[in-house]
Write a structure and sequence with these properties.
Helices cover about 35% and strands about 15% of the residues. By secondary structure, it is of the alpha/beta class. The chain has 2 domains: about 230 residues, Type I PLP-dependent aspartate aminotransferase-like (Major domain) (Aspartate Aminotransferase, domain 2, 3-Layer(aba) Sandwich), CATH 3.40.640.10; about 110 residues, Aspartate Aminotransferase, domain 1 (Alpha-Beta Complex). The protein has a 7-stranded mixed β-sheet with strand order 1-7-6-5-4-2-3, sandwiched between helices. The radius of gyration is 21 Å and the shape is globular. The N and C termini lie far apart (about 50 Å).
């Protein structure tokens, strides 16, 4: 579908489908095979599978590059980190996904990289740190504090120094920002989240617009064995078909919940970057009150992951490896597709009960 000038919504629905010939299926089939007949590309399941193609095609067209699927988001990030020359510097957000930071710190401990942690909202500081670095790793918005980087400005500066830029685009998705068109060299996704959208897949992806980078990342996927499953790619491709409508609804819910949280006496502050489906807020009463709130909900699911059709929340500092820059009482709220008034009634009662603020009411309220 490339070259037709189609909107992202149309690409999400139509890209990566089989050729339209009589008798062909509308959807790409799941190919369960560890070996393929030689002579038409890949002949071994670790190097390629027809079931990967639909997901990689639709994501690549949405991002404006060539996609490669991985077994998980952290496996995709690992492939990018593995390109960094030994001893070179990597610039990364001081507050970011804990799994990513844990891997970068481990690489630093082993002497493989020099890690420079920065405030990614301070573009000048990022560019100074990146001037002689091999890689700038960005999350925008960051997980879980929702800080936003100036990707274009950082990309321009990196282009002048030869520094590679990689952007974790999991929270924004290519429907809200396309980092490759903003100066990035790599885009990484945890496709377990909004792309697949139904909390039933563990999958990752790297997208790039350089043939050389594509070959390098593909080689690492194969040699490290971080390959995706056929079923996971099929489910993720199916999930992308509804990404635009899911994102629109969840964003509307997130914006409204942010507005109500900002006015709640049980909340110290609420942060929402204006796009995406995640709201971060800090609860009056700190860690104990925040933890209690997440365990009080009846509609909102107390769970770690995000980006599904269901609304989930958790206190992020309950995880030992979460960065200490994340406040103890911060709750990450991943907003889904439920009725926003039902969500608010559940959230409000949980917050009021956990903080002991008067005016709490039993859920559900009568209508």
């Amino acid at each position: 579908m490339e070259g037709l000038g189609l909107s992202p919504a149309t690409i999400a629905v139509g890209a990566g489908r089989p050729e339209r010939i009589p008798g062909a299926p509308l959807n790409a089939p799941i190919t369960l095979a560890s070996a393929l007949v030689p002579g038409a590309g890949s002949e071994y399941g670790r190097h390629g599978n027809p079931a990967w193609d639909a997901f990689e095609t639709v994501l690549g067209e949405l991002e404006g590059g060539d996609a490669l699927a991985f077994s998980s988001g952290i496996a995709a990030a690992t492939a990018v980190f593995d390109l960094v020359p030994s001893g070179a510097a990597v610039v990364a957000p001081r507050t970011a996904y804990s799994g990513t930071l844990a891997q970068l710190r481990e690489r630093e401990r082993r002497g493989l990289i020099e890690l420079r942690l920065v405030d990614i909202t301070d573009t000048e500081a990022v560019n100074r740190a990146a001037a002689d670095a091999a890689l700038v790793w960005l999350e925008s918005p960051t997980n879980p504090t929702l800080e936003v980087a100036d990707i274009e400005a950082i990309g321009r500066a990196a282009g002048q120094t030869g520094t590679a830029v990689a952007v974790d685009n999991t929270f924004a998705t290519p429907l809200r920002q396309r980092p490759l068109q903003m100066g990035a060299d790599f885009v990484v996704h945890s496709a377990s989240k909004l792309l697949s959208g139904h909390s039933d897949v563990v999958l990752g992806a790297v997208v790039m617009n350089s043939e050389r980078a594509h070959r390098a990342i593909a080689a690492r996927r194969s040699t490290m064995g971080a390959i995706p499953g056929a079923l996971e790619c099929w489910l993720a491709a199916r999930g992308i078909r509804t990404l635009h409508v899911r994102l629109d609804r969840a964003e509307a819910n997130a914006a409204e919940l942010h507005r109500r949280l900002s006015a709640s006496p049980a909340v110290q502050y609420s942060r929402y970057p204006g796009f995406g489906t995640v709201v971060a807020f800090e609860v009056v009463g700190g860690a104990d009150a925040a933890q209690k709130a997440t365990e009080q909900s009846q509609v909102v699911v107390y769970a770690t992951s995000l980006g599904g059709v269901e609304t989930t929340w958790e206190r992020r500092r309950r995880h030992a490896q979460e960065p200490t820059t994340v406040p103890e009482g911060l709750i990450r709220l991943s907003v889904g597709l439920e009725d926003v008034d039902d969500l608010w009634a559940d959230i409000e009662q949980a917050l009021l009960v956990s903080t002991g603020i008067s005016g709490s009411r039993a859920w559900p309220r009568g209508r």
